[in-house]
Amino acid sequence: MSSWPADWLVPDWPAPGRVKACVTTRAGGVSRPPFDSFNLGDHVEDDSLSVSVNRQHLQAAIGCSPAWLRQVHGMQVAAADAEQIAEADASYTAETGVACAVLTADCLPVLFCDRAGTRVAAAHAGWRGLAGGVLEATVQAMALPSEQLLAWLGPAIGPAAFEVGAEVREAFVSTHPQAAAAFAPSLNRGRFMADIYALARIRLAACGVMAVYGGGLCTVSDPRFYSYRRAARTGRFASLVWLV
Fold this sequence. Notes:
alpha+beta; CNF1/YfiH-like putative cysteine hydrolases; 6-stranded mixed β-sheet; 20% helix
């Protein structure tokens, strides 16, 4: 396996040796502004050749093929397939040679593995998918006891930047009353500041996944990452997990 750039993130979680994971950053690619430079999203009006080159560099760096998804902010989970692009917001695999991958620019990427290192998964959790149950669906698709699973929360919009309306708060609190603690009143009347990391931990705990790591990296304030809220015309970074 090739080494990847030093500025990519490696999840800090007690994953077994067969499990590898990383999060890319904006640096090191060929895309021009405003997508500079390592944009991996092919749906953001970046030059298609630049995206292709960036994706080839990624594949060479990790030593396996990412299974890209057509993400729609839903709850569908697909088996990871590097040859066909599924319309889904999460994927899983027990095979080597393919990486579960999600693209984000403020939404929450969540990586999964089991303690024995036999299966991995990646989920894209915007607030709609998170409220709708994409994490629960991913856990179910892994078909393992939830106490055997480890989850890692990647870079996402932080609670100081994630202002939402009352309808978003209600979408979470209506099914998990304890989610009220993840919302603080905004300075703007009738609005709330949401902690997407806390919301994800609540949803994971509710389905039995207690070993949850990561969290706390804000894409809006950290220039290493793309952020749709900071600049609507921007690229996407990838969070990936795979077996070797």
